[in-house]
Design brief:
Helix content is 21%, strand content 41%. It is of the alpha+beta class and 226 residues long. β4 and β5 form a beta hairpin.
Length: 226
């Protein structure tokens, strides 16, 4: 084994939620940091601002709950693409969270590097997670795309607004992304994690993907009464 896996999930999530209990589910995966992660700082492309190492960027983005303990991001750079503010950096893990009624689920993976790309949306939305792994016992939303339903899990805090979000243009854009990258909405951040350190071409492609998804979101979805 390459690490220790602690799993606190199961079918009890649904049962306890129906019973009115507050359920907090946390999955933590600890792995030894690989030697190849200790690479030189990635060059910052023209048009981006080099921030470097930043202890506060995860909190500033509203992503603190996705990580175990304090988080120091490295290779942080900021820019604007397609009119959207963008933050890119390397984090020592990743996570996703979802609140559904009284069932709160948080999944965290730590001990290996992930490249984070974050785009600030025009406004906050309920949590939304496009995943390649298990949905941790939560209901998985279906879309009009059979391929997307087969290959991905979609977990949301608000199914009604999630279905409004999943307009045909958004579903088409979601399928453009790398299959091993997440796409998450956390507050007003559209976030994607992918395992590994920064590769300039990969980051450019993934940021372009986030911009396509953000641009496809119907404006009325940001209306809290929608």
């Amino acid at each position: 084994m390459n690490g220790t896996v602690v799993v606190l999930i199961g079918a009890v999530v649904a049962a306890l939620a129906l019973a009115g209990a507050v359920v907090a589910v946390v999955v933590t995966v600890l792995r030894r940091q690989r030697a190849e992660d200790a690479r030189p700082t990635a060059p910052v492309p023209e048009g981006w601002t080099d921030v470097g190492t930043d202890d506060g960027v995860v909190g500033t983005l509203g992503l603190r709950e996705l990580f175990d303990g304090p988080v120091t991001a490295t290779d942080v750079r900021t820019g604007t693409v397609g009119g959207y503010p963008i933050v890119v950096g390397v984090t020592p893990g990743r996570g996703w969270a979802n609140e559904r009624g009284k069932a709160n689920v948080t999944v965290r993976i730590s001990g290996t590097s992930y490249t984070l790309c974050a785009l600030r949306l025009p406004g906050p939305l309920p949590s939304f997670n496009l995943l390649s792994e298990s949905a941790a016992g939560l209901p998985d939303l279906d879309t009009e795309s059979g391929d997307l339903n087969r290959d991905r899990r979609i977990v949301s805090a608000d199914d009604r607004r999630a279905h409004a979000l999943l307009a045909p243009t958004v579903v088409a854009a979601l399928q453009d992304g790398p299959p091993d990258a997440t796409l998450q909405i956390v507050g007003d951040q559209l976030v994607s994690f992918r395992k590994g350190r920064i590769d300039a071409a990969e980051v450019d492609a993934r940021v372009a993907w986030l911009v396509r998804v953000a641009s496809a979101v119907p404006a009325f979805v940001y209306d809290t009464e929608a």
